């Protein structure tokens, strides 16, 4: 049966075969005449400032120190830390040696960290004092030979004699600069972030230097950064979105990055005001805050030129509500860890409400139904993607790799989508999250977009609740604004004006907060456990 391949609207690009870090900093230098004096980072928590030249010098010296500690091209190094300039320094020091970085959520428990370490076998763990106790517990009986703290020794970081494994501060590990390792960019794995993919437990996603470099070029091709742009990076660098779109893409564009260790709306707003932030990268819950949080009116955020949302679908109404309030466009893109991560983004003025944008350069798409039949424009099916940014595969898991990456190089995303006649892509929902009601398919995201638009609602999540008669019925978990009240009957009455009758809620629980991952995805499994 013929394939209906939807190609990118953008012109094809060139992707050099060189190490990621080498490209990132040469790109920045080539873009700016004032490179010698240009800021790379501002630490939003401490106020510390890093020029590009100082950042590069620290990377090269730290790479030399890691080499003396035994890090080789075949080594894996774990970074378990929040956003800070030192995260980027450590990241690029490791990949300069041709070694691989595995990034770990610093909010994980010791058991969760240990599971990841046991799978990828790192030789060194890089962390901060706040998470040191957890990391020490996690590395017991692991491959980790030493722990390095990514903060200044003078900051009072604990170095306890009770810790059996060698523990040191990164500044004390600086040595003679290490040269850039010679490597095959298509075969050398730069990073191993962990993702559940389309199903199952977290798996190590093998992304090569070529995957990341290609997607960096694709992403920046779709963005227009000015000489005076400044970006805020609160989304975590350990997640592929933060790692690539915020850290590497912005570094390559020469855009100063203001880092923040944890999200706090008032702190975010104060940093936007203080540093005249022009680019803010967000997830839907943050966009929701921009639309509805009362603190937004207390700060001058007029410097913002664009808010870019990703990691989860953003409803068109919410995007427009936020844009109207803050006075700048709120757009979105689409990606996943297995795509390095971007496959779609909103380019320039080519905006459509609710759209995730169009495919980045050299990226092909298909929309395929459950029978493997390609769908035409406007019809719904699973989104398949092929391009230079598609992962090498899952670490130690050929079965999972073959389940989502076919022999022709198509990545089966597990997301239900449609693409219109203008090649704009719209995410309908995750296939595995669809509610099947008496043979009908109900997308939770569709119901969530409708309910969150109600003036009484601050946040919402919808799941399928098992039902003997219907298979599943839609149930909502709703966070109300302070002082507001809402009934199930009122919700359904309003929804009936927008959606088919079979999409009405059968049950609604009113709760204080919706559980979400650091990247902004609703943790539906936790909500299902409440049933």
Describe this structure in words.
The chain is of the alpha/beta class. It folds into three domains: 23-183, ANL, N-terminal domain (Rossmann fold), CATH 3.40.50; 203-430, ANL, N-terminal domain (Rossmann fold), CATH 3.40.50; 434-529, 2-Layer Sandwich (GMP Synthetase, Chain A, domain 3). 28% of the residues lie in helices and 23% in strands. The protein contains 14 helices and 28 strands. The strands form seven sheets. A seven-stranded mixed sheet has the order 2-1-12-11-13-14-15, with helices on both faces. Strands 4-3-5-6-7 form a five-stranded parallel sheet, sandwiched between helices. A hairpin with a 5-residue loop joins strand 1 (39-43) and strand 2. Helix 1 packs across helix 7 and helix 4 (110-120) crosses helix 5. It is globular, with a radius of gyration of 23 Å.
């Amino acid at each position: 049966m013929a394939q209906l391949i939807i190609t990118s609207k953008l012109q094809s690009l060139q992707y050099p075969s060189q190490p990621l870090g080498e490209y990132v900093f040469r790109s920045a230098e080539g873009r700016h005449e004032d490179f010698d004096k240009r800021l790379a980072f501002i630490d939003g928590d401490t106020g510390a400032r890093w020029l590009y030249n100082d950042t590069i010098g620290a990377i090269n010296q730290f790479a030399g120190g890691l080499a003396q500690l035994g890090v080789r091209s075949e080594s894996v190094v774990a970074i378990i830390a929040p956003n800070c300039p030192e995260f980027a320094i450590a990241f690029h020091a490791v990949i300069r040696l041709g070694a691989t970085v595995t990034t770990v959520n610093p909010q994980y428990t010791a058991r969760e960290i240990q599971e990841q370490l046991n799978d990828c076998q790192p030789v060194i763990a890089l962390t901060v004092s706040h998470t040191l106790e957890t990391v020490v517990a996690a590395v017991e009986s692991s491959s980790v030979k030493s722990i390095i703290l990514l903060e200044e020794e003078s900051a009072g970081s604990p170095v306890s004699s009770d810790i059996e494994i060698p523990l040191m501060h990164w500044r004390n590990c600086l040595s003679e600069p290490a040269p850039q390792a010679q490597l095959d960019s298509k075969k050398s794995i730069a990073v191993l972030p962990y993702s559940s993919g389309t199903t199952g437990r977290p798996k190590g996603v093998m992304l090569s230097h070529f995957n990341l470099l290609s997607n960096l070029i694709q992403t920046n091709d779709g963005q227009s950064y000015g000489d005076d742009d400044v970006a805020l990076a609160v989304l975590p660098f350990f997640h592929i979105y933060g790692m690539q779109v915020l850290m590497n893409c912005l570094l390559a564009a020469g855009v100063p990055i203001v880092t923040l260790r944890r999200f706090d709306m008032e702190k975010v707003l104060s940093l936007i005001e203080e540093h005249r932030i022009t680019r803010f990268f967000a997830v839907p819950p943050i966009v929701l805050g921009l639309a509805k949080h009362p603190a937004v009116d207390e700060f001058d955020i007029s410097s913002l030129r664009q808010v870019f949302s990703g990691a989860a679908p953003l409803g068109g109404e919410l995007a427009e509500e936020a844009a109207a309030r803050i006075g700048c466009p709120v757009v979105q893109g689409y990606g996943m860890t297995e795509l390095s991560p971007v496959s779609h983004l909103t380019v320039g003025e080519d905006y459509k409400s609710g759209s995730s944008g169009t495919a980045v350069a050299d990226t092909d798409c298909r929309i395929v139904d459950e029978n493997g039949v390609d769908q035409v424009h406007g019809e719904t099916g699973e989104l398949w993607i092929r391009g230079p940014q598609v992962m090498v595969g899952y670490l130690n898991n050929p079965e999972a790799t073959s389940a989502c990456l076919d022999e022709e190089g198509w990545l089966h995303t597990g997301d239900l989508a449609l693409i219109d006649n203008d090649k704009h892509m719209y995410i309908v929902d995750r296939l595995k999250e669809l509610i099947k009601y008496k043979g009908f398919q109900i997308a939770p995201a569709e119901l969530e977009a409708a309910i969150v638009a109600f003036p009484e609602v601050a946040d919402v999540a919808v799941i399928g609740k098992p039902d003997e008669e219907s298979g599943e019925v839609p149930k909502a978990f709703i966070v109300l604004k302070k002082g507001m009240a809402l009934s199930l009957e009122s919700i359904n009455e309003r929804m009936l004006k927008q959606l088919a009758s079979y999409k009405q809620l059968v049950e609604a629980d009113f709760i204080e907060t919706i559980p979400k991952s650091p990247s902004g995805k609703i943790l539906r499994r936790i909500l299902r456990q409440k049933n």
